[in-house]
Amino acid sequence: MNNDYAVPEAAKPAASVDISFFAEQINKTLSTISYGDNPVELYEPIRYIMQLGGKRLRPLVTLLAGYLFQDDVQKCLKPACGVEVFHNFTLLHDDLMDKAPLRRGQPTVHEKWNNNIAILSGDVMMVKAYELFLDVEPAKLQKVLKLFSHCAAAVCEGQQLDMNFETSDFTTIEDYLHMITLKTAVLLGFSLELGAVLNGAPENDALLLKNFGIKVGIAFQLRDDLLDVYGEQDKFGKQVGGDILADKKTFLLLTAIDQANQSQKEVLTRYKNQTIYSGQEKVQEFTQIYNELNIRAQTEDKINSYFEEAIQSLNAVNAPEARKAMLRNLALQLMERES
Amino acid sequence: MNNDYAVPEAAKPAASVDISFFAEQINKTLSTISYGDNPVELYEPIRYIMQLGGKRLRPLVTLLAGYLFQDDVQKCLKPACGVEVFHNFTLLHDDLMDKAPLRRGQPTVHEKWNNNIAILSGDVMMVKAYELFLDVEPAKLQKVLKLFSHCAAAVCEGQQLDMNFETSDFTTIEDYLHMITLKTAVLLGFSLELGAVLNGAPENDALLLKNFGIKVGIAFQLRDDLLDVYGEQDKFGKQVGGDILADKKTFLLLTAIDQANQSQKEVLTRYKNQTIYSGQEKVQEFTQIYNELNIRAQTEDKINSYFEEAIQSLNAVNAPEARKAMLRNLALQLMERES
């Protein structure tokens, strides 16, 4: 990686800042990263997936967590981008493994190029993610990379569990919550812990922020499960009922299976691997059972419970209230989103 | 990764040691690494490929390079194993990309399990490789990881170039030498530099050793190309003529194409993507042209020239002659191997 790119000038926020200041810092820094040039087949897919956009949620919370402890978030910028590069690496390889044709409405890397290029450009992306961590001050580098590596392995474990669940008939709600914790939540938790550690937070506050991130991450994924069934089609980006059609074991389905009576259970299992029913019919029948079992309210209760836990952790962090409010509001926005 | 495994007791060599002492240290340390347990589909393939064996050449030269500068190679052990884990990660993903059925005579990971498991267990192997570097002393950690990351990206670039060459009609000898430098030689160069850096070598000696490794690596690959055609079937592990049958652009083929007359060129291109001729006929006709053009001697000259350069670099390293002799003898063995 070419590391001699310009350092953004004003990473020190003005006295009164809002979240857009930090988002801008992330976007500026991401735009200055040069991943590599030759061979072009290896590096072009990296630029492609990084430019597809996304919320940049993970690097954003790294900066917000860092800002809790120091005005200056300069030293968080490159590692925060390392988290974003790693996140996009997981999307690239996951899409390949899931044979997904689209990502953010655009062709996935293995579709646009081919499987081998997706494997190899993903591999080099992980190297580039590590490289973005290497300017961390020497006294903290080992700790940060141990945390990152631990998190990276956990994300791989989560993806493997998710693939295992596709063919397993014995997935429990507990298994599912464990899987989404690894696949989705730990990276959000690490993103927060990272900012805290880099900007000198006491150990306890860093762990509280990590827990805040993990619990928000779980709640976020459960909300995703919920929107798949109860989202409004014109606001939800994906097809409503997509998880039902794909036989995906979500919190809703696993809870329903757990509580279903004999006839409901028959409906929920009748459709498995079946194409004889129309998709619409399947979605309707499942949704009706979810309604009968009050799955929506149960899922909302679960989401609220995780969210409450998250907020309690954030509340306990010893940092200025106005700064914590930015993280709280961001988490609230994530919970209220309809897509 | 569970890092609390026992540290080998006697990493400090006795007054008089030979290479087997270091090989034993490597094998001991490798056997104590616990990669992870759950999910088993993710970690079993790592143990599988690591237990297939191999020469452990890269970690061995790390220790031998470290031994040039300090009696005690203890601090080189885990990073040396990191190199070996990384090397095996590249074999795992390369075999998948090349659709290779066998590795060291055993089914490859994607054959024994499946493609997705090969992708994901490879990914987590790269994380584990990085983890094995993290106990390097803080003052050197950044430098070591920058060197490693640079090398890791280069290896990916080499693999991409190798795949590009399969479908390109315009590969030059220079392109080929660049590709094998990236794909094969830089990791050997890094392995040596690593041991030197960890054991406090002056910068210049570390770079000389890196160059020694790169030049030996290129010579080693060219020797591999040569053995494919001129090796004795009963000593060579693979099928003689395998590269010819696979239309592989080796140093021998590219040199022959470069120097062929019109009728020879016709033979060398006639067979491309053709199955109408028997394999044996193709190997015979190519070998005859190689003989006519004196390709064997030219390749041997090239190998000797790289080997000479390697030895000159090693000679220039400021370290005890008896210790340098171990590296020189190892390199000589690599050159004299017949398989």
From TrEMBL, chains A, B:
Its cofactor is Mg(2+). GO terms for biological process: isoprenoid biosynthetic process. It comes from the Bacteria. Gene3D superfamilies: Farnesyl Diphosphate Synthase. The keyword Zinc does not apply. Keywords: Magnesium, Metal-binding, Transferase. InterPro entries: Isoprenoid_synthase_dom_sf, Polyprenyl_synt, Polyprenyl_synt_CS. The keyword Repressor does not apply. Pfam families: polyprenyl_synt. One of its GO terms (molecular function) is prenyltransferase activity. SUPFAM superfamilies: Terpenoid synthases. PROSITE patterns: POLYPRENYL_SYNTHASE_1, POLYPRENYL_SYNTHASE_2. PANTHER family: GERANYLGERANYL PYROPHOSPHATE SYNTHASE (PTHR12001), SHORT CHAIN ISOPRENYL DIPHOSPHATE SYNTHASE (PTHR12001:SF85). Belongs to the FPP/GGPP synthase family. This is Isoprenyl synthetase. It comes from Adhaeribacter aerolatus.
